[in-house]
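Workshop exercise sheet. Pairs work together: one partner reads the sequence aloud, the other fills in the structure field after running the prediction. Swap roles for the next sheet.
Pair: D.N. / O.F.
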Amino acid sequence: MVTTAADLRLVVGIGAGVLAALSLIAAVALLMPRRRRGMIALTTANGGTVVVPAANIEQTVAEDVRSVQFVTDASAHAQQEKRGIAVDLSITLRPDAELPAAVEQATARVDSTLAQRYGATIARRPHISVRYAAARDAHAEVKAPVTS
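Structure field:
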């Protein structure tokens, strides 16, 4: 309970301090750049910024990874990190695929796609989830030439 003038000054001082701290936090929050959800900001060669939907980058990366030998399907998830773009992949390999070679080729394809198409760097090696296609799925993709 506030009984003296000194107590009143103390309560008012604490209240003013709390109010000033909250105001400072609000001002900093308003001045910080906002990241748009699902968007990735890329820096251009002349120092500008281009914002690209993450879904576009994901689609392009997945399409390029599908062209890697032994990869039958691929999907990608991209997000912006401080050092560049982080990509996580989910790939399906043919049953006869050599895992180390396929993973290395997929990683190289992600790196080259980001660099060549978007001028971006990869923030880290991709996290890759791998599954092997069933033998019947792999044979269905390889068609014998038609002879007459």
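Discussion prompt: Confidence is low (pLDDT under 50) at residues 138-148. What would you look at next?
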